[in-house]
Amino acid sequence: MRALVLILAAVGAGLAASPTGAAAQSTSARFTIVLRGVTIGSEDVTVERTAQGTTISSIGRFGPPVDLILRALQIRYDADGRPLGMTVDASARSIASVMTTTVDGDAATSTLTPAAGDPVSSREPIAAGAVLLPNPFVAPYEALAQRLRTAADGSDIPVHQPGGAAMQARVGASTPQQIQTLDGLIRARQTAITFTAPNAAPIALEVWADDAGRLLRVKIPTQQLDYLREDLASVSARLVTMSRPNDEDVRIDANGFSLAGTLSKPSTAPGGPLPAVLLVSGANQSDRDEVIAGVPIFGQIAESLANSGMLVLRYDKRGIGQSGGRADAATLTDFAEDAKAALNFLRERKDVDRRRIAIVGHSEGGWVALLAAAGNGRVAAVGLLSTAGMSGANLNLFQVERTMNRSGRADADRQQTLALQRQIQQAVITGKGWEEIRVSSQQRRQAETAYFQSFLTLDPPALLRRVDQPLLILQGELDRQLPPDSAGALEAAAAARKNSRGATVVRVPGVNHLLVPARSGEVEEYGALTDHTISPVAAAALIEWLKTATTAQR
Question: Residue 17: what pLDDT?
Answer without folding.
Answer: 52
